[in-house]
Amino acid sequence: MVGKICGTGSYVPPHVMDNDDLSKIVDTNDEWIRERTGIGKRHIIGEETTSYMAGQAALRAVEQSGIDPEEIDMILVATSSSETVFPCAACEVQKMIGASRAVGYDLNAACTGFVLAFNTAQAYISAGLCRTVMVIGADSMSNMIDWTDRSTCILFGDGAGAALLRAEEGSPVHMAAHSDGVKGPALTGLSRHRKNWEKELEPGAVKESYIHMDGQGVFKFAVRKVPEIIEEVLEESGKSLDEIDYFVLHQANRRIIEAVAKRLKTDISKFPMNLEEYANTSAATVPILIDEMNRKGMFRKGQKIMMAGFGAGLTWAASLFEW
């Protein structure tokens, strides 16, 4: 048995901060940001929390699927920015959507999180341990950045996406995942929220960004490892690049996605992007994009979809499945 996507949903906060708004905070401008990242705006939480956004995305996935929430066996939330350490975001989602029979837990693998959670759900379904699994990626990245640090504050936004998987007979899902902890310092985040950081500083102390990133290092890592893992999954599946209908990659930077397409010698039209609207929402980028594509009617039964995520850890993962 494999987990087929039977419903998708997403949620982004209504408050939008575009590049012109950012230029009032840091020394930047719309042209500079778009040229280097492809980002035009980002959605930023107000009163919303990570768990709230995850719950809203899950509710929309349930509504589209027509499945009774009582039928859900498991809820996996990929996040690195939940508003509480415990209860976990998955248990908060369980409460919000009324999935009283489900077990839930969170998975923290930063921007790779949703793909790893999707692969985890497939493993549970394949083993016969679960029949219906809700997989969510949700992050409030605005809580984790220093808004005076131009190198990071331009990159991130907030949001959540969800996919509801149901066990069915079908072609196997092919997966791969890797980590490189030695190179972890290239992208790190402190476990504090923005609302607390200023009052924690002693007089005269220097503010430190919540997220520290070696931009060039992360770029080189992504454009090398993402094509490699895609080719690894293709080899294991016996499929060719030409057979893949869409490559749904983590939406970190337009230049990264274009570089991956170039290395794979594949038409960029197969690499959908929405980061101009949402920026990098970490674990939420892939499921938000899948939900948008699904609701636009871009997927057809039997199409082959390659998902790939990459991020802090360093971690990277991919999954090939049929719609």
TrEMBL record:
Keywords: Acyltransferase, Cytoplasm, Fatty acid biosynthesis, Fatty acid metabolism, Lipid biosynthesis, Lipid metabolism, Multifunctional enzyme, Transferase
InterPro entries hit by this protein: ACP_syn_III_C, ACP_syn_III_N, FabH, Thiolase-like
CDD domains xrefs: KAS_III (cd00830)
Biological process according to GO: fatty acid biosynthetic process
Beta-ketoacyl-[acyl-carrier-protein] synthase III N-terminal domain mapped to chain residues: 105-181
One GO CC annotation: cytoplasm
Function: Catalyzes the condensation reaction of fatty acid synthesis by the addition to an acyl acceptor of two carbons from malonyl-ACP. Catalyzes the first condensation reaction which initiates fatty acid synthesis and may therefore play a role in governing the total rate of fatty acid production. Possesses both acetoacetyl-ACP synthase and acetyl transacylase activities. Its substrate specificity determines the biosynthesis of branched-chain and/or straight-chain of fatty acids.
Record family assignment: Belongs to the thiolase-like superfamily. FabH family.
PANTHER family, alphabetized: 3-OXOACYL-[ACYL-CARRIER-PROTEIN] SYNTHASE (PTHR43091), BETA-KETOACYL-[ACYL-CARRIER-PROTEIN] SYNTHASE III, CHLOROPLASTIC (PTHR43091:SF1)
Protein name (record): Beta-ketoacyl-[acyl-carrier-protein] synthase III
Gene this protein is translated from: fabH
